Amino acid sequence: SRHLKTAILRKLNQKEEALNLASDSLEIDPFNFGILYEIYLLGDAQALSKMKERFRGNIHNYMEVALDYAWAGMYSEAISLLELGISDQETLYPMALYYLSWFFYRSGKSDEALKTVLKAEKCSPDHCFPNQVESVPALKLAIRINPEGAKAPYYLGNFWYNARQYREALECFERSAQIDNTFPTVFRNLALAYFNKFDLQEKALH
């Protein structure tokens, strides 16, 4: 709430009040990442280096704060922050790009959204297991604007399986496998889903 209020004060050009609130907020929580980014946006360049130091290069920290901005409708801030985090990564994390694409699309930049989804599809799927509820609309959008992509339905299938939505998971895994039959992990997941969650009659139908 303090992060949101600081952002609103900044947008209202009430800089002094925003900075005072930000300073008080850091006294309460020195690891309030959103506040540190707000201080940077308010004109303090040193706050950016402090934020990066405390983020420790973890893309998930960038994603969390970017999602806070997105849910407040502040897509330009969400985009700039997430692009900053992505630029610091040696290995691109697919979900960061899917979120970035979602932010682009919501801000009216559909061409950038598609370009970003195509980039996400080329990322290594290793160690990528979406578990945030926001991954659902982001991945559904990726599937809609890039129906030939195999990775977005695979990731969404992982989310649904973990959420015990097994029918939805199965449909996503099957879609992914039909698009790209060279990715072995999706077939492993399909086998597990069939064996563990569906009876013999249902398996025979597939």
Number of strands: 0
Average of pLDDT: 93
The biggest sheet amounts to: none
Strand content: under 5%
> What's the total helix number?
13
Please identify the structural class as seen in this structure.
mainly alpha
Q: What's the alpha carbon Rg, rounded to whole Å?
A: 20 Å
Helix content: over 70%
Order of helices and strands: HHHHHHHHHHHHH
Shape: elongated
Q: Report how far apart the termini are.
A: 49 Å
Residue ranges: pLDDT <50 for 5 or more in a row?
none
Which descriptors apply to this entry?
206 residues; mainly alpha; 13 helices; elongated
Structural notes for this entry:
- The relative contact order is 0.07.
- The chain is 73% helix and 0% strand.
- It is built from 13 helices and no strands.
- With 206 residues, the chain is mostly helical.
- The longest helix is centred in the N-terminal third of the chain and has 14 residues.
What's the short story on this structure?
Helix content is 73%, strand content 0%.
Describe how the helices and strands are arranged.
Layout (H helix, E strand, L loop, with lengths): L1 H10 L3 H14 L4 H9 L4 H10 L3 H13 L3 H13 L6 H13 L3 H12 L13 H11 L5 H12 L3 H14 L4 H14 L2 H6 L1
